[in-house]
Structures are given as structure tokens and as C-alpha cells.
Amino acid sequence: MTGWLRDFAYTVDLDGWVFARSGTFAIGVAMRTVSFQNPKPRWLTR
């Protein structure tokens, strides 16, 4: 399989930072979504 992928016409080099950045972005979107779903922020209930 490695030989087949090496001879493939279209190749893209992906670094680790691409996955780290997209993961951080996904977690940020999830946290923002959850915070908007919460009717009252936690700091108001203290």
C-alpha cells in the first residue's frame, strides 16, 4: 500500500500543527456552543 500511495499523482504533505490547530478550533466551537446553550452563566450563581 505504501508503494501505491507513493506513486499516486496527487500528494499533500500535512504537518502535525494542522491537526493540532483543527482540533483546537473544534474544541473552541464546542465550548462556545455549550456556553450559549447554558441559560445562566456559572459566575452569576456564585
Automatic annotation (TrEMBL):
The protein's name is Uncharacterized protein
**What's the domain of life for this entry?**
Bacteria
